[in-house]
């Protein structure tokens, strides 16, 4: 195809000039179309690899999370004991009984000045509509009603079996929704498109209602309200995020504590119990199995049906606490310095086999290849192949498996020859414009119909390329943080490939190092131009990627590896400090900081000298009043992209 | 281990193949080395090529299965795409050529194209010409081997307008538009 526009030679036709113009116009048009289609495709590719970045880092993150879960459990337990909820005199850690619930919410006064929705039980559809309206307008439901709602919800959930059986008829199609992750707008959009729940409009919500999004609490309130109004036609499955350990890292705990400053901990405490009472699976017409994650080659529905699901408050392994002769409580041999915990006993748990059954249901992912192996990507559950699916469907005479748990660009996906469906209902999950959400409508033919949607934010219809740029920048920011955190290891590995110390290595070697050190399978050659400088002869200046990033507040006087560690665990430290900070002042004393850091770092096996920590504490005591504003402190460890080329 | 720039031919081809595989994998969501045939266009373009729709169809004919399954396998795509990159086919369009193209549509040379004019050009199916009765004359007159139009779908048109159209004048000021789109590319690090 020629690139240039030129007029052609003379042709003595009467409408030559018109022809001449038309030919030029056509060629020009085709050229512009060709150019535009290319731009558009390149934009789509940028969006795709940005999502790949987000996904890879998300799963790598989840894997690391399981390590710290023990530590968080301990910290939260400690706070609960010291703080608000005083239960039985024995001090042992048991589930709150019905009496303590009633006493709690009844004691709470609702002032006249409260303009939000007031609930009365039993709830009806009018309450639900009023509530939807109020929550849509970002009003907060009063904690008294929240606690009362939780009390009633728990009472109802206790009666439900582990596997809910549901029938679908021609007058009663069923709707199945996947992960919502705190996206209230998506839930409202689904209700708008598909109608509110009712006896003739049943719903199944397949877990992961909370974490990540900003309105997890509101979603739970709405779901529980409909559950109470239509107990036979509204069904919830537990997801892996209905777990107080994950909630501490992925945002739900923080959201609740922020919205409910006085009663937040109580609400969380009761929710921990309620999550464990959520049913594990739903079976439609005895043919379609709906679980949050997936299955494994050892999945046994009979076993699942019988186990005591409420004993699994968390699916993460709890720490083994030891008490020594001096009645000092230790965790992994490290004294904790919190003597009051000596009375703490761990939760009564299920057998390892039972725990595995539930873990597999809530954490597994399907894979293309045959076989069933441990899910290393997530650190929990399995990866199950089409043969595993076939085996299970045959064993229980089922037609298909519907699950969620994985991000899907179009809101849904089919695999294993259409026998496994993934349904994901959180649109714009990573960023505005990142993906669609979807839900399933099913009639007695058990043929799923998919409905897709995407929430448009009120900030007006942004241009596509602007949205893609935002997504891309956000993804690159996340990636750079990870690169920064692994700086030392990266530099060491690069050096091995660069024997002559030229500061340059081949593209091939650079890509190999990035992938192996960061443990992320990404299109490195495509991303290269965004991350490093390349020479005219095609070699990569591997140090250049570090020139463009630094912590928000440069910390030259601090040990670099310490800085890296603080960047890596920034979010985790926030969680810990929040827990310590009982008066919610946002400040901690240098002593508490040192003590906590010591426990944390010894738990992780990080060695840093006391002087390094002290120096750090001093350098961040900006007001010089002896207290550390820990949010400000942690902000300093945000990895940012610098615009000018600054020598490292 | 010494890092080398791929100076020998094998090295160059190996690098190209890796680059193609990477781009392919961005669209291969299942990890089983095939992609939906409709994504091939995006993959080719992400590798810096600017084919027309017609050229893309030609390419697809080479990489599709004998019995079209709707999927394209990496093993078929790789050699075809490697050759395209080595031959430097479907080169990008220089900025000045693009500008000339827009100017060609701007009859009055006013510096802008109205929304109606642009839509008409981009979405027109064929060409309004009296010599359609004489196909030979028609073809030779336009010196085109393929059907002249590659019209935009409604979606493509809407998208282009959303970034190109100045809402105040309801026209496309093409010089500004081109500058904007070119700048957008340079999110790369300063080289």
TrEMBL record, chain A:
<dbReference type="GO" id="GO:0030145">
    <property type="term" value="F:manganese ion binding"/>
</dbReference>
<dbReference type="GO" id="GO:0050906">
    <property type="term" value="P:detection of stimulus involved in sensory perception"/>
</dbReference>
<dbReference type="GO" id="GO:0005506">
    <property type="term" value="F:iron ion binding"/>
</dbReference>
<dbReference type="GO" id="GO:0004722">
    <property type="term" value="F:protein serine/threonine phosphatase activity"/>
</dbReference>
<protein>
    <recommendedName>
        <fullName>Serine/threonine-protein phosphatase with EF-hands</fullName>
        <ecNumber>3.1.3.16</ecNumber>
    </recommendedName>
</protein>
<dbReference type="InterPro" id="IPR012008">
    <property type="entry name" value="Ser/Thr-Pase_EF-hand_contain"/>
</dbReference>
<comment type="similarity">
    <text>Belongs to the PPP phosphatase family.</text>
</comment>
<dbReference type="GO" id="GO:0005509">
    <property type="term" value="F:calcium ion binding"/>
</dbReference>
<keyword id="KW-0464">Manganese</keyword>
<dbReference type="InterPro" id="IPR029052">
    <property type="entry name" value="Metallo-depent_PP-like"/>
</dbReference>
<dbReference type="Pfam" id="PF13499">
    <property type="entry name" value="EF-hand_7"/>
</dbReference>
<keyword id="KW-0677">Repeat</keyword>
<keyword id="KW-0378">Hydrolase</keyword>
<dbReference type="InterPro" id="IPR006186">
    <property type="entry name" value="Ser/Thr-sp_prot-phosphatase"/>
</dbReference>
<feature type="domain" description="EF-hand">
    <location>
        <begin position="485"/>
        <end position="520"/>
    </location>
</feature>
<keyword id="KW-0106">Calcium</keyword>
<dbReference type="InterPro" id="IPR051134">
    <property type="entry name" value="PPP_phosphatase"/>
</dbReference>
<feature type="domain" description="EF-hand">
    <location>
        <begin position="608"/>
        <end position="643"/>
    </location>
</feature>
<dbReference type="InterPro" id="IPR002048">
    <property type="entry name" value="EF_hand_dom"/>
</dbReference>
<dbReference type="InterPro" id="IPR004843">
    <property type="entry name" value="Calcineurin-like_PHP"/>
</dbReference>
<feature type="domain" description="EF-hand">
    <location>
        <begin position="568"/>
        <end position="603"/>
    </location>
</feature>
<dbReference type="Pfam" id="PF08321">
    <property type="entry name" value="PPP5"/>
</dbReference>
UniProtKB/TrEMBL annotation, chain B:
<keyword id="KW-0677">Repeat</keyword>
<feature type="domain" description="EF-hand">
    <location>
        <begin position="93"/>
        <end position="128"/>
    </location>
</feature>
<dbReference type="InterPro" id="IPR002048">
    <property type="entry name" value="EF_hand_dom"/>
</dbReference>
<dbReference type="InterPro" id="IPR011992">
    <property type="entry name" value="EF-hand-dom_pair"/>
</dbReference>
<protein>
    <submittedName>
        <fullName>EF-hand calcium binding domain 2</fullName>
    </submittedName>
</protein>
<dbReference type="GO" id="GO:0005509">
    <property type="term" value="F:calcium ion binding"/>
</dbReference>
<feature type="domain" description="EF-hand">
    <location>
        <begin position="15"/>
        <end position="50"/>
    </location>
</feature>
<dbReference type="Pfam" id="PF13202">
    <property type="entry name" value="EF-hand_5"/>
</dbReference>
<dbReference type="GO" id="GO:0097228">
    <property type="term" value="C:sperm principal piece"/>
</dbReference>
